[in-house]
């Protein structure tokens, strides 16, 4: 298929349709409202369901309801909206339902701002809602990857019966890049008869299905948590995604970064190389499950003097990097917030300082 | 001798966890009878609330989803929009629907979602132990209003059926009670009618049911019925508040 | 080789569209491209700007502090971004609305009264197309015929305004080459 030039937000909307998701509920919030605008036009054309809910809180449960009924469904929002949806995320995870949530992250905390940020890393990977649950979190670095990850998200959500988050940022949502919609990422929906409330008349078994998260018996609740944990362990084994850049040679420093930030780091690494300084990049594409072993292996390489996590936040992913490097190498941090994005020149300056 | 009375197919054999004298059991039965009579059990999805009826799926024998506190109408919207062929009903109490879930119920009604809402109004929080609800009467004691509800501080009780009837989008809004056999019979008709509107894809339907909570009211079941009739019914007047035909 | 073009002006001057058309033509020509808007309150009638990156390899940083070229459609845009242009770049000035000139000695200045030309072509609304055509003719970043085709495609849903924009395009090219 020929390349088209599309805004990230619109491309994400189109990717959902191409992945066979015809149901979308959302509430407007900058910088991602174009997804809703795009799908309000496109979904009726393909016989899909579009609904603008009254709040992100309500939208979270529209997603839960549709997912519980066995249909592919997606919502998109931005940071403050995701906070409101986090209640539903906890319930959806607890009830083992698949759904896709896209967070086009803006600056926080509070109302923050509308410019790109990575301040929601903790919220996305460590919780957000209450209880022991995780989302599978995909972090694209541009419009093409946002398309591919949105499409993959539905397959992964159904594989694990767990909500999947595609975490971009305002830059990825707002910029236009050429994109292709790969045909091979579309998968057939899984059979949901065993658990979904899709109506007994459509199923062989005439036992009612129940989608729930309440377990008043302690042993039963413990069992549900163990079932969830088993899924997270399986994710760690089977669905870690990452990229190493300029990591074949003897690099002196390993830069950890993801999303839009990783593109700036890539440019900085190329500029450093031109000056004869070798730096490598470790880029997690899944923020959960985090590529634990891969960042460790890249950090412990003999030539590597230290690791630095560079983020559009005040230091969130760096905690995972530190955890995984286990003190084998110093782990440093640099970040800017609120829509300020560290420039390639700034990164070069920091790297030179660190490696002396 | 022929059978004169039997358990609806849509009710399970489980004993309910409800307190003696609680009227949830009656309303469960009415919902089950309506489902049976319309032959929709295998296409029906119920939404359980947070409140005493959180375990409703143990008693009503159809597919069920369990919502967070107050969110049942949003969840029902999600199901109904992606599967318009399913019959979707929520079963909510007054804390769930009239307090934390006020936004969800108003907007679901205003969008005209083709769902059925059964709203149990017993003027108190039941499951959490008798705290004040938005529907608690002035002067009525609650564990968070030990001297009785002070309307100067907490406002007057919310009359949901009246409020819902102000929504311009066509719908069926009625207030019923289950305090006497005649009332139970009328309530049954209203619940069935509410489901019929959904089966015919006509409109949103809402049945408020004035109920009792002997445990948290601190009364015997008989006294509760009497108190409800004397205190609740004059304020919460029974009857149809809105029908789609009049729109 | 990477080139960055910043388009800047009032909201409503068609800045974002000019930039998108340049990106689109460059994409068709086989380049990697990125169209990076500024977004937020300035979208509502204030100064709007956006940057197009054209490259022969994967585009890294979308944060462009100093572009190769600037297309300034109003005075505040010129004053704000004049300093940021890389030496040797083009500073394009909409002379209809900007009475001053670039303060730089190390850039190539191109001042064209695009509003006046657009009015001659039939409507001031085509000023962005005049500017785009003139800048494209001067910078030679993309093939002019291809760019013209892209503009035609863009307006496919409004065939009535295609002749106006085609005329505006030709006038813009001619003005740059004069």
TrEMBL record, chain A:
Residue span(s) of domain Pyruvate flavodoxin/ferredoxin oxidoreductase pyrimidine binding: 14-192
Pfam families: PFOR_II, POR_N
Keywords, in A-Z order: Oxidoreductase
GO MF term set: oxidoreductase activity
InterPro entries associated with the record: 2-oxoacid_oxidoreductase, PFOR_II, Pyrv_Fd/Flavodoxin_OxRdtase_N, THDP-binding, Transketo_C/PFOR_II
Alphabetical list of SUPFAM superfamilies matching this protein: Thiamin diphosphate-binding fold (THDP-binding), TK C-terminal domain-like
Domain Pyruvate:ferredoxin oxidoreductase core: 253-347
Protein's recorded name: 3-methyl-2-oxobutanoate dehydrogenase subunit VorB
Organism: Desulfobacter latus
TrEMBL record, chain B:
GO molecular function: oxidoreductase activity, acting on the aldehyde or oxo group of donors, iron-sulfur protein as acceptor; thiamine pyrophosphate binding
An example Gene Ontology biological process: cellular respiration
Annotated Pfam families: TPP_enzyme_C
InterPro entries: 2-oxoacid:Fd_oxidoreductase (IPR051457), THDP-binding (IPR029061), TPP_enzyme_TPP-bd (IPR011766)
Domain Thiamine pyrophosphate enzyme TPP-binding: 58-200
Keyword Disulfide bond attributed: no
Record key words, sorted: Oxidoreductase
PANTHER family (UniProt xref): 2-OXOGLUTARATE OXIDOREDUCTASE SUBUNIT KORB-RELATED, SUBUNIT OF PYRUVATE:FLAVODOXIN OXIDOREDUCTASE
Protein name, as recorded: 2-oxoglutarate oxidoreductase
Species the sequence originates in: Desulfobacter latus
Organism lineage: Bacteria, Pseudomonadati, Thermodesulfobacteriota, Desulfobacteria, Desulfobacterales
From TrEMBL, chain C:
Keywords from the named record: Oxidoreductase
MF annotations from Gene Ontology: oxidoreductase activity, acting on the aldehyde or oxo group of donors
Residue stretches spanning the membrane: none
Any Pfam family matching the protein: POR
Stored InterPro entries: 2-oxoglutarate_synth_KorC, Pyrv/ketoisovalerate_OxRed_cat, Pyrv_flavodox_OxRed_cen
Signal peptide start-end: none
Domain Pyruvate/ketoisovalerate oxidoreductase catalytic: 11-173
Matches recorded under PANTHER family: 2-OXOGLUTARATE SYNTHASE SUBUNIT KORC
Protein name as it appears in the record: 2-oxoacid:acceptor oxidoreductase family protein
């Amino acid at each position: 298929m020929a390349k088209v030039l599309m805004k990230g937000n619109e491309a994400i909307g189109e990717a959902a349709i191409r992945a066979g998701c015809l149901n979308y509920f959302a509430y407007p919030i900058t910088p991602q409202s174009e997804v809703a605008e795009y799908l309000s036009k496109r979904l009726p054309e393909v016989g899909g369901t579009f609904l603008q809910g009254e709040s992100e809180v309500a939208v979270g449960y529209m997603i839960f309801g549709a997912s519980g009924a066995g249909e592919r469904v997606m919502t998109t929002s931005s940071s403050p909206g995701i906070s409101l949806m986090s209640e539903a995320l906890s319930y959806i995870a607890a009830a083992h339902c698949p759904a896709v949530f896209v967070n086009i992250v803006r600056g926080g905390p509070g109302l923050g701002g509308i410019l790109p940020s990575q301040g929601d890393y903790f919220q996305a990977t460590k919780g957000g809602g209450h209880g022991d649950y995780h989302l599978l979190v995909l972090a694209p670095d541009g419009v093409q990857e946002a398309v591919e990850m949105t499409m993959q998200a539905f397959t992964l959500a159904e594989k694990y019966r767990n909500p999947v988050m595609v975490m971009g940022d305002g830059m990825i949502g707002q910029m236009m890049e050429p994109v292709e919609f790969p045909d091979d990422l579309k998968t057939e929906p899984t059979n949901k008869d065993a658990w979904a409330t899709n109506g007994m008349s459509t199923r062989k078994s005439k036992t009612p299905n129940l989608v729930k998260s309440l377990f008043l018996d302690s042993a039963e609740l413990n069992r549900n948590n163990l079932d969830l944990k088993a899924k997270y362990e399986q994710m760690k084994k089977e669905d870690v995604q990452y990229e190493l850049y300029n990591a074949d040679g003897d690099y002196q420093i390993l830069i950890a970064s993801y999303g839009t930030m990783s593109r700036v780091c890539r440019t900085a690494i190329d500029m450093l190389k031109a000056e004869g300084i070798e730096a490598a990049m470790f880029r997690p594409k899944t923020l959960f499950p985090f590529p634990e072993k891969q960042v460790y292996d890249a950090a412990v390489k003999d030539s590597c003097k230290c690791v630095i996590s560079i983020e559009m936040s005040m230091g969130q992913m760096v905690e995972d990097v530190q955890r995984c490097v286990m003190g084998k190498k110093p782990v440093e941090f640099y970040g800017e917030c609120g829509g300020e994005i560290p420039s390639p020149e700034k990164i070069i300056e920091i790297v030179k300082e660190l490696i002396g | 001798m022929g059978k004169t009375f039997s358990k609806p197919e849509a009710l399970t054999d489980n004993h309910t966890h409800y307190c003696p004298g609680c009227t949830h059991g009656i309303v469960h039965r009415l919902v089950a009878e309506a489902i049976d009579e319309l032959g929709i059990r295998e296409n029906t999805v119920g939404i359980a609330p947070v409140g005493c009826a959180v375990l409703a799926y143990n008693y009503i024998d159809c597919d069920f989803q369990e919502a967070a506190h107050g969110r049942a109408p949003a969840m029902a919207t999600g199901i109904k929009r992606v599967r318009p062929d399913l019959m979707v009903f929520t079963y909510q109490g007054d804390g769930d629907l009239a307090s934390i879930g006020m936004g969800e119920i108003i907007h679901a009604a205003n969008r005209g979602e083709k769902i059925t809402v059964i709203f149990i109004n017993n003027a108190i929080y039941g499951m959490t132990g008798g705290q004040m609800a938005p529907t608690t009467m002035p002067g009525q004691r609650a564990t968070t209003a030990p001297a009785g509800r002070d309307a100067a501080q907490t406002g007057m009780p919310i009359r949901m059926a009246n409020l819902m009837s102000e929504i311009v989008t066509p719908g069926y809004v009625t207030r019923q009670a289950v305090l006497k056999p005649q009332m139970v019979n009328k309530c049954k008709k209203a619940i069935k009618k509410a489901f019929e509107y959904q089966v015919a894809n006509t409109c949103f339907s809402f049945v408020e049911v004035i109920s009792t909570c002997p445990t948290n009211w601190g009364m015997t079941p008989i006294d509760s019925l009497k108190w409800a009739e004397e205190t609740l019914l004059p304020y919460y007047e029974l009857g149809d508040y809105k029908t789609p035909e009049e729109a | 080789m990477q080139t960055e073009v910043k388009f800047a002006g009032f909201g409503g001057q068609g800045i974002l569209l000019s930039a998108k058309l340049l990106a689109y033509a460059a994409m068709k020509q086989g380049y990697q491209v990125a169209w990076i808007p500024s977004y937020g309150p300035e979208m509502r009638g204030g100064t709007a700007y956006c940057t197009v990156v054209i490259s022969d390899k994967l585009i890294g940083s979308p944060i462009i502090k100093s572009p190769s070229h600037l297309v300034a459609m109003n005075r505040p845009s010129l004053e704000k971004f004049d300093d940021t242009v890389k030496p040797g770049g083009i500073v394009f000035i909409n002379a209809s609305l900007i009475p001053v000139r670039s303060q730089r000695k190390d850039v190539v200045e191109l001042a064209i009264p695009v509003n006046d030309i657009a009015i001659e072509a039939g409507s001031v609304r085509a000023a962005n197309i005049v500017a785009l055509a003139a800048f494209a003719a001067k910078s030679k970043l993309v093939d002019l015929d291809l760019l013209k085709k892209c503009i035609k495609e863009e307006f496919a849903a409004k065939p009535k305004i295609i002749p106006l924009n085609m005329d505006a395009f030709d006038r813009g090219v001619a003005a740059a080459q004069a």
